[in-house]
Each structure stands twice: as structure tokens, then as C-alpha cells.
Amino acid sequence: MPAFGDPNAWLAIIGLAPGKHGANRTGRPFTGDFAGELLYATLEKFGLAEGTYGADPADGLQLKGVVILNAVKCLPPQNKTLPVEEANCRPFLMEGVASLPNLTTFIALGKVAHDSLCRSFGMPLARTKFAHGAEHILPGDRRLIDSYHCSRYNQNTRRLDAGMFEAVFEQAIASR
Description:
This protein has one domain (about 5-175): Uracil-DNA Glycosylase, subunit E, CATH 3.40.470. Helices cover about 35% and strands about 20% of the residues. It contains 6 helices and 8 strands. The strands form 2 sheets. Strands 1-5-2-6-8-7 form a 6-stranded mixed beta sheet, with helices on both faces. It has a two-stranded antiparallel sheet with strand order 3-4. The longest helix is centred in the middle third of the chain and has 16 residues, at about 85-100.
């Protein structure tokens, strides 16, 4: 799954992996799945997207100052990544990061994305524990902000709601 967004992005959203009914089917991250509804609505609310999300890659939506990358590049069986898949995909994640020279801030959607990014930057997980809203300083004075993933499961169980998700983006914008 290729990155989607602004090549001059200051903010990178790190997702888990392409969703079976979303990105894997449509070719654009978070497009056509439940998680995309909240993600793109939030980006639109904060002026980080132009156009209107229509759950279709042809909807004309463009990201402004934001890029979406995945920790794992392929659709994992049963939607659960294996440690070997995560390790094998880290070079692709860091290649994507390296191609975006203006990145200052990352939002990791879930623990797998958090752990993959921290490991990629050589950060010990014991000192960079995942917690919704937690902020960590990465090498190069970049910021990592954690969020629960915007999955249907997390929204249905109320682990994450729109207000909580928006607060993470407010935090990212404030730290810019």
C-alpha cells in the first residue's frame, strides 16, 4: 500500500496495515472502511484535508500537510500482524519517513504502529510506553503522539470516541 498525502507533510499518521475492505480493496489508506470515516472527518475538521471524503479514491480528497503511512505494507491474515511481518516492513516505513523531509510530528494509530515506529528510530519500548494521548520525543526532535486506532471495534466499545481522537490532532497541531 503506497503512502497517501502531501509530499511536504509535517504530520505523518502511522496506521497498522491495509484494511481488507478499505485500503486493500480501494488502493488508498482508510478508504472504504469504518475507520476512514472518523479519520477523514477529523482531518477535514482541522483543515488538514481539502475536498470531501466519499469513501472512493476518485472523490478528489487531498491531504494538506499530512501523509498516511502503514507500519505493515500488506493485509495481515485475520487482521493481526505477526512480529516477523512488522520487522520485515520497518525498512519500508523508514523509507517513507526518509522521503518526507518536513516531518516533525507522528500520530501512531495503535500500539503496533507505535512500537514499529519506536523500534525504527531505535527507541526502547520500556521508555516509550503506548498510551492514548502520550507524547514521546524521537531522534531529530520529532514528536510521536499515540492514539487508539480509529477502528470499528475501538469506536463500538467506546475505547475511542470522536472527542478523544480530535484531542490527539489538537495536540499535534499545538506542538507544531
